[in-house]
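Example record

Each entry pairs one chain with its bound ligand, 3-isopropylmalic acid.
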Amino acid sequence: MSEVYQVAVLPGDGIGPEVMVEARKVLDRISEKFSLTFQFTEKLVGGAALDDCGHPLPEDTVKACEAADAILFGSVGGPKWETLPADLQPERGALLPLRKHFGLFANLRPAICFPALTHASPVKEERIAGGFDVLCVRELTGGLYFGQPKCIETRDGEEVAIDTMVYSRSEIVRIARVAFLAAQKRGGRLTSIDKANVLQNGILWRRTVEEVAKEFPDVTLSHLYVDNAAMQLIARPRDFDVVLAENLFGDILTDEASQIAGSMGMLASASVGDGTGVYEPIHGSAHDITGKGLANPMASVLSAALLLDISFGMKQESLDVINAVDAVLKAGFRT
Ligand code: IPM
Ligand code: MN
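Structure tokens for the complex follow.
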């Protein structure tokens, strides 16, 4: 019997379950077409898990993910759980620990404007016509998201909030290598984002990325301060090839990149590193449109394409999914 590919499926909350249904259909079609066997194990995560057993990332879900070859994730969170203690909230209690648990330090977010959708971008058509195609490489397990101390405490009779931005050299080296390798396979250009004019983190980031650049003489490296990058992405989107950023800057810039590409509903992501990869749309749970048949499943479908490519090495299968999305858009189908 041929190999069975194990996929843990975590639909989550809001529109997560409905977009996941569509991604599953696409994977089923791929398995028929290429005679492959995917075995799906569906588990609760986020608010759905909280409601079921009192924890947003149950042990049972983690075990299923550990046993899988790849994890397909929907979305988590929603108004119902927003006022819970921080570590019980779906985002902080499920998504971030999942990333940390599997050591998924590299988040790859391809922002591509499909030709049929150039008019949907808020950026003038002539600025993206002929191709907006950027790969954002976001550091995912460090920086302000995880640095300690992280708390709200009382100082001099007043509440103060503390988040710590901390990066070690080795953390920067490993994410920079991911970005350089990706640039080598694409257009050979890498833009590294930092705030070296203000943050100590920026100084170490820039210096380290420059050192790593020596391993990749065929890649042209440039640096932008994050505020300037936010502007340049809109002003000259086609000039970017691979963008490298730390966790929070990458979070912000990828929302911007998704909008340039037409809509947040279309951007997929792959979180990879030491353990099992997680593939998920960059959009959230969108409770305002949940259950109305309005959610765009594209990001989820494209996340499945990334899963095929990166975790299973199925290049052609992955390309088929991307081409199918392109064909559906060209045929005029919209949500
Ligand atoms: C994302 C999301 C998450 C993040 C949230 C939901 C914690 O915005 O994947 O971009 O900030 O990383
Ligand atoms: Mn985000």
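The first strand starts at residue 4 and ends at 12.
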